[in-house]
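Take a protein:
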Amino acid sequence: MGGFYLEASQADAALDRLAASTRKHDLWFSFAGGSTSWVRKRLLRQRWSRADVQVVDTSTFHQWDPQQLGRVERRRWYLEQLERSRFVLCPRGAAPSSIRLFETLRAGRVPVILSNAWAPPPFIRWQACAVRVPERLVGRLPEVLAEYADRADAMGRAARAEWERTLASDRVGRTVVDALQLIGPAQAAHTRGQVAFWPVRYRLQRWRWGLRAVARGAVLAAWRRTGRPLPLPLNRDAP
């Protein structure tokens, strides 16, 4: 389950204020995030015909670095963008889910989930408060979301209601316990098997990461020698 981009004390107040805000939604949909997955790279390359769409690459911003210049201003801008948006894009990043998915629910906005591998957490009525779009349809988002235009406000209210019902501070503990009980004995046995082989799997994974880093560095070095711009935005951690 995701957390917040803001410290807990700030998130509690800021996101709850957004949920109660009556500010006009002058953005049809928005996204601000790093280039950490293929679907995000495709998203950041799109050229939208609508003026009320805001998609911003923040790969140069290190959210968790307390010394990051402009950190306070960037966070204030992020909250303002969230407040202005009717739909908030939640594409997969380094993992199938996204921190902003749960922030969007709490802020009373409609999350648009762009992640083919995402598994919906139980007990949340996702069909009432979220839109799931296959990654291959990134370029058709304005058309897809147009089908939800008449329901957007109601879905935003439902998103906040689902947060309060299942993820608020006095409810989230019960939700997590109930979700764990759904795992069942069969899944528990599978998990024990995964744990038993974890040291071997971890070494293999480290080997894959190392090989991938070497290959990526070689490809980037060769491309840069051509003098041509890169066709896709890089993750901020790329060499």
